[in-house]
Amino acid sequence: MIAPSILAADFSKLGELVREVTKAGADRIHVDVMDGHFVPNLSMGAVVVEGLRPVTTVPLEVHLMVEDPGRFLDGFVKAGADTLIVHLEVLPDPRPMVEHIKKALGKKVGLAFNPDMPVERIEPYLKDIDLALCMTVFPGFGGQAFIPESLERLRKLKALTAVHNPACEIEVDGGIGAKTIAGCAAAGANVFVAGSAVFGAKQGPAAATKDLIALAKQ
Ligand SMILES: O=C(CO)[C@@H](O)[C@H](O)COP(=O)(O)O
Ligand SMILES: [Fe+2]
């Protein structure tokens, strides 16, 4: 599954671009939310999700790179988010929030972790989540280079999900493109976030989406 990240899109044409990648076969749209604290950058809030909701039929997944995700969950749900992804780094015990997102809010829940977090830290929560997001760059900015050590981490994550929750999706985010996507798929990933490789592609976002879908399948 391909999840174009709108962080790399030309915001003056956001609706049009999201329509275009949806038509090209994007499986979901990835919305990067940054608070300037958890990561050294600011990006977008729930109004963007609200604006995009009528534009696409595919799920909108919100990647919350924020220190205090609990403050924002309701707003994103009201705006139309389908999946809420929170970072393990800011949750000493993510279980109450995972439960809240699933039961009270009725949405899908993802747990993300940075490249310097031991993969085993997510193990106790795998059985309760829909998606594990293995960051393949340090979060905060689009357009960074894929960290090669991520492949070994993905293999570990795949082995852990096989034991605890084979239905749990394994998502990769950061530096995913034509050169890195097949390796990530072989290592166990099945959801691929791509920002610059889609919206910055020479061939245009629609063709790039189709190319990435084909490469991920090989
Ligand atoms: O969460 C993040 C960055 O923190 C990502 O979702 C980026 O937006 C991916 O951009 P590319 O590396 O694909 O350009
Ligand atoms: Fe992201």
From TrEMBL:
Top class in the EC scheme: isomerase
Binding site for substrate: 5, 63, 140-143, 173-175, 195-196
Biochemical pathway: Carbohydrate degradation
Its EC number(s): 5.1.3.1
Alphabetic keyword roster: Carbohydrate metabolism, Isomerase, Metal-binding
The protein's role, per its UniProt record: Catalyzes the reversible epimerization of D-ribulose 5-phosphate to D-xylulose 5-phosphate.
Lineage: Bacteria, Pseudomonadati, Planctomycetota, Planctomycetia, Gemmatales
HAMAP family: RPE
Protein name, per record: Ribulose-phosphate 3-epimerase
